[in-house]
Amino acid sequence: MMWFLLLLLCTAHSQPLIVQGEESTVLLHGSNPCEGYIGIYHNNVLGYVGGTNWINNNSEVVCKSINCGFFKESSSMPAPGDIDKVWIDDVKCKGNERNLWGCSFPGWAVFPSRKDSLQKISCSRNINITLDGFRCAGAVQYSTDGGDKYSGYFCDADWDKAADRLCETLKCGKSKMTVKQPWMGWKGFKEKSERMKINCLDTATHLWQCAQPPEETPCNNPASVICTGHERVQLKGNASNVCSGELLKEEDGSWNPVQNSKTNPNDWCKQMHCGSNVSHIQDDNGSNLTCSDNVKVVLVNEKHTRCYGAVHVEVNGRPSQPVCASNWNNEAAKVVCSELGCGRVFSTTSKKSNTQGIMDHVSCSGSEASLWHCRAKRDNNNNPLSCTSAAYVVCAGSIGVRLTDGTGRCAGRLEIQHEGTWRRVYKGLSESDSGFVCGQLDCGKKGKSDEKQFSQGSGEFLAYSVECENNAADISHCLKKIDKPKGKEKAKAIICEEHKVVFLNGSCSGMVGIAQGDKIDWLSGSNTTWNQTSANTVCQQMHCGNASRVYSISNANMTKSIWNKSYRCSSNSKSLFNCEKIETLPSDHNDTIATVTCSGNISVDLDGVCWGNVRVCLNGECGGVCADTWTRQKSEMLCEGLRCGKVLNPTAKPKQSPVIFKSVHSTKEMTNLTQCNFVRNDDNIKTCEPAYVVCSGSVIPRFNDRRDKCSGNVEVRYEDQWLPVCADALTDNNIKTICEKLDCGKAGKKISYFGPEAAQPYFIKKIQCTASKSFGECTIKPEKSPCKAGALQCSEWKKMALTGGKACSGAVMVYSEGKKSAIAFEGWTKKMGGELCNNLECGPWKNNTKTQHKNVWPFLNTSFSYADVEDPNIWACEKVSPSDESQSKPQLLIECQGEPNVTLSNSTSNVMINDREVCDSNWKEDVSHMVCVQINGSKAIAKTSHNKKPIRGKKYYHVSCEENHYQLGQCKRALGECKGKLVSVYCVGKAEFNTTEKCGGQIQVKYRENWEKVCPLTSFNVTHFNKLCQQLGCRDHSRDRQQMESTYNDTVSLETSLSCTADNRDIKDCLSHQSCQGKKPAEIYCDDYVPPTPIIIGPPPTPIWPAMLVVGFALVLLILIVVFIRICTVKKAKKSSNDLRVAGTLSRKEVEIESGSYDDVMSNSNEMEELNHGGLRSESEVVIENEAPSTSSCPYDDIDDPAAAQPLISRAATAGASGGDCIQNGATYEVDDQQENHEDIEASPEITRTEAEVHDSTQTTPESDAAAPLGSVQGD
Fold first, then answer.
1. Are 667 and 517 in contact (CB under 8 A)?
2. Of the four, 53, 582, 1047, 1244, which is 20 to 30 A from 1143 by CA?
3. Which one, of 234, 358, 367, 338, lies nearest residue 348 by Cα?
4. C-alpha atoms less than 13 angstroms from C-alpha of 867 in its C-beta half-sphere
5. In 29-149, where do the E strands start and end?
6. How far is residue 226's CA from residue 250's CA, in Å, rounded to a whole number?
7. Which of 336, 458, 471, 443 lies closest to 395, judged by CA?
8. 114 vs 1152, residue with greater confidence
9. What is the DSSP string of 1042-1091?
10. DSSP letters of 1098-1129?
11. In this predicted model, what pLDDT tens digit does every residue of 822-877 receive, in sequence order?
12. Residue 1107 CB-density burial (10 A; 0-12 exposed, 13-18 middle, 19+ buried)
């Protein structure tokens, strides 16, 4: 606040500055601005200064104020003519004033001055202002010594208004332009420290009159001007040296020849930064000048092409230097492209750089013959330029277009050459754009897109689209900048209307045809044009070597269309269409057709049997074809040519293999791929994936079960992997085709799929076969979505088993449709026995034996031989043998070592085969009975559910049993994950029965982990009731009791039933896992039934918690009462103790007491301590000690209440005098023993002493004063 008031006070006393107008001092009518009559502009009116009483100090002030140095001489001189006004006179300066009107003078125009005599002075500076650069163009510099030495520059701030005045002063006309950017380097500007800023008034007649010291204003660039009197010249005509050629001068924006110029040619060369004159020829038509420097503008790039790159300048053969990109624009780029003959500017930009440059801040009008002739800041030996960015130009002349990877120049993938690299173009051209491209390539006016026939290539994509306007001059006008498309894009390809293809109607031989669009013509076989050289060209163009036979065939009967052109080829010709055209056709042109047989050969096939990578072999060199040009039409042609059926959809990727052909091109006349045109992969594109084909002839079905013949899960080999066939695909017609293909008869049926769920990536979901076709001609469709896999059993199925008691030992029997056959021992080898044991999952083979008795079963009408079997299973060894009806030959018996161990787990009754659990897929109840019979000779409890869940990732057995199997080990089994539950089997032989009371009540049965009650007995008769009583260890069933004794009313849900028929003799066989909901459990009462003892139910017991609550409350109340009494007793004892101290122990000389209350002597904590110690002390425990030499505790007969004798002494104090003597105030008293008279007060086991001091002030007693008297004991 104080500062604010001071500010107001200061403001109140400040006087405003009144400016009446600007004054300025000038020297008039002198040879330079620092000499002449003294004039003053006052209120924009010129007046002079009189010389009355003039002194030298006045001259010093004048010279100083106009930046003219110091005073040199002064004189009073006659007026230069009639004058209107003398502003001031009789001036008296001290010498330190800034200007004359700061000195003492009578006033403005008030002194009676003489107008015929005025003061004229001369200052020390002789000002000369010129342009540093060229005549009438350059930076404004000044000299203070008349031009002998230039001492400084004017700054470019506020310079524009003064430019005209300078150009007029220099006799250079008017200002054409003031240059803002750095120009010419201005070495002197950097080296010289003097600067002047320009601040001109309208009255100024000389630029120096505008000069002012810059003070703190920055001055970074000199004032520069180009006056209209400046002649700008350039040399034109030689791009290899821009410092040589016709001399042209700029006039009104155009360049005209210089005629009859008197200017020194050296000045021209210097002005153009071309050194000095070497040769100058001048006539009436103009001038030709050659300067000493050799300068060339070039575009530098990695491809060493001339129409794009970084802009460089090469001087006198030295390494080129870049042009810096400060202020770089399209006009400068236009000049570069023009001087290099590269057309218009396509794009220009700047690129980061960190090097020395040769030019910077380039400014071109666009009409210059060379970039070197543009105004710019330039490098010289004394002023190198540092580039942070370099100019970069792409001219239209560097933009090219082509169609590549086709069979000719008029068809293929569209590519644009940009910055020296051929780049692919994104798909999306219109037909008109395609036509423009074709026109640029001289391939007709029309074109169509076709990306399927041509390789996609591997180069980069162009960052431009191709969109051509009607007035486009070349392909560069069609390029429009775009963002990169998302996803995978295809490259554009075009076929122009003039595209032509040569072909042979045979494989490397036949008539020579020419296809153009949909039209087919044939090459003339005239002897005038068709010869060995032309035939060699055709064979080489078709990759078929050279011509081994050249001939013609008559066209008389064929009347084919003959191509309307003939060619004369040389040995270097690579294509028929590159050969020389014969303008005049021979007379026999249409009579014959050119025909040739080439030396080479071509084959096209697949690297697998009817599937795999496409393989093309030309003259012994084999390789693949790019997949992006391969079409389904070619696949169909290939499968048909190889007799491999139809084309199927592939599911796998092709394996990597060399690709030597980019594309294969066919025409409508071709019937075989060997007649096609092949485009070689000469640039070895690595990203090209090989073409891949799957024909239906490669697909083969099979049963995946090795132990059975013509039965099992159906699989199809598809691309060398076995895929499961969906059950829905096994229609009747397909079943018939599959069975016939596998020699399994002509009929069949679907059966249940066996084993874990198929886990293949693909499933065969569709098989489409016709009745008259083979399986290889069926249409087969794999899909990724899973399905229910199918299984099949053909009419000629066969299955083997070992019979005779064990699963893996016994006679070998063969089961087939309606038959059971034995196998003869003869010819059966150890190897075959081992294969059978392996197929039956019975472990290693042990031995082969034969029966000694006559066989009752007919022998199989086939034999087995292990020879010549690639993938052996026992059925692959089967051979047809001659019929032999004899039954006398011995039957084969085999013993294997791997008899499976079938058990039930103890806790959950899970079925275990070799300690591995079984999944419930394919499980049937008959198999449960088989397990129980095998294990304990009983049947299984019917309809038992499987509840245990499998562990994910763990493998379990899947089991499938046939009607002829009698042991679980004979059944087929397979390992795999389980998607269902694990099999639990409960055998009736282990079931137990019980009742809720002895020989009666609710029936209970235990066959799982717990006792379970039973559903109502709906099918029981008297026999069944009796048998159940006997099973319980009781006498027969009591019907009367059954009707009378039922006392149960509960209804529950149950899972176990007893369902008996008249045929059941064992009550256990009636057990089944059958549930019932909301039923009363079944009951039975036998003759031995003992009713339960009745339980007398009295009134409910009284809860005890209210009584406990009352007792607790009483205890708490009692404790509070005791505590209260105790506190009162303690306070009373303290008061009595204090009275004793005052009465008998403390001396008034030692202690003065102002207050009569002593309750605070003992703190609350001490009270609680005493309470904690418990009990009342006897009078003998109370000892009061003062500062007398000796104090002892004494019994007092007047203390009646023991509680009043609370101790004020610590228990740690030492005992007082012994015996019954009492020492008080230094005297000893004899006291009678009171113990006999106070038996009700318990004596303390020890006597303790406490020192208590009572003060009447807060002053602390000094240690010397507080010392205890002799004989006293210091307490706690």
1. no
2. 1244
3. 338
4. 4
5. 35-42, 45-49, 71-78, 86-88, 117-123, 128-134, 137-143
6. 13
7. 336
8. 114
9. HHH-------EEE-BEE---TT--SGGGGEE---EEEEPPPEEEBTT--P
10. -PPPPPSHHHHHHHHHHHHHHHHHHHHHHHHH
11. 988 888 889 889 989 999 999 999 999 988 666 678 888 888 877 665 666 788 88
12. exposed
Spatial separation of the C-alpha atoms in residues 644 and 636, rounded to whole Å: 10
Q: What is the pLDDT of residue 1147?
A: 38
Over range 118-144, report the average pLDDT. 89
β pairing state of 277-283 and 254-257: unpaired
Cβ neighbours of residue 1054 closer than 8 Å, sequence gap 6 or more: 1012, 1013, 1014, 1015, 1075, 1076, 1079, 1081
In this structure, which amino acid lies at residue 613? N
State pLDDT tens for residues 604-644.
Answer: 999 999 999 999 998 888 999 999 889 999 999 999 999 99
Instruction: Write the burial class of residue 252 (CB in 10 Å: 0-12 exposed, 13-18 middle, 19+ buried).
Output: exposed
How does pLDDT run across 677-692, given as a tens digit for each residue? 999 887 777 778 899 9
Q: Residue by residue, what is the 3-state secondary structure of 940-981?
A: ECECCCCCCCCCCCCCEEEEECCCCCCCHHHCEEEEECCCCC
Beta bridge partners of 180: none
Asked whether the beta carbons of 621 and 658 are under 8 A apart, the reply is no
Which tops the pLDDT comparison, 866 or 263?
Answer: 263
pTM of the full structure: 0.63
Say which DSSP state 212 is in.
Answer: E
CB 866 within 8 A of CB 877: yes
CB-CB contact of 40 with 101 (8 Å): yes
**Cα gap 1204→190, rounded to integer Å:** 113
**What region, left, alpha or beta, does residue 316 occupy, with left being phi > 0 and alpha being psi -120 to 50 degrees?**
left
Work out the mean pLDDT of the chain and round it to a whole number: 82
Q: How confident is the model at residue 1156 (pLDDT cuts 50, 70, 90)?
A: very low
Which amino acid belongs to residue 1132? K
User: What distance in Å separates the CA atoms of residue 130 and residue 140, rounded to the nearest whole number?
Assistant: 6
Q: Which amino acid is at 974?
A: A
Give dist(CA 1170, CA 1172) in Å, integer: 5
Lookup: tokens for 1014: 């039973």
Note whether 16 and 10 are within 8 A (CB). Answer: no
How confident is the model at residue 189, as a pLDDT?
Answer: 73
Tokens 């798909």 belong to: 427
Residue 878 Cα distances to 692, 866, 978, 1215, angstroms: 38, 8, 35, 124
In this structure, what DSSP letter does residue 695 have?
A: E
Q: Are strands 411-418 and 493-496 parallel, antiparallel or unpaired?
A: antiparallel
Residue 738 identity: I
CA dist 945 and 980 (Å) reads 12
DSSP string, 1126-1153: HHHHHHHHHHHHHHHIIIII--TTT---
Which tokens is 704 given? Answer: 């995946």
Confidence of residue 455 (pLDDT cuts 50, 70, 90): confident
H/E stretch holding 639 reads helix 632-641
Q: What backbone phi and psi angles, to 5 degrees, belong to 773?
A: -100, 160
How, if at all, do strands 86-88 and 45-49 pair? parallel
Between 928 and 1104, residue with greater pLDDT: 928
Contact 606, 657 (CB under 8 A): no
DSSP state, residue 321: E
* Closest residue by Cα to residue 288 from 243, 335, 333, 321: 243
- What is the distance between the alpha carbons of residues 1001 and 1088, in angstroms, rounded to a whole number? 12
Extended strands (E) in 556-665: 566-568, 580-582, 592-598, 602-606, 611-618, 621-625, 647-648, 659-665
3-class DSSP state of 842: coil
**Coil/strand/helix, residue 743:** coil
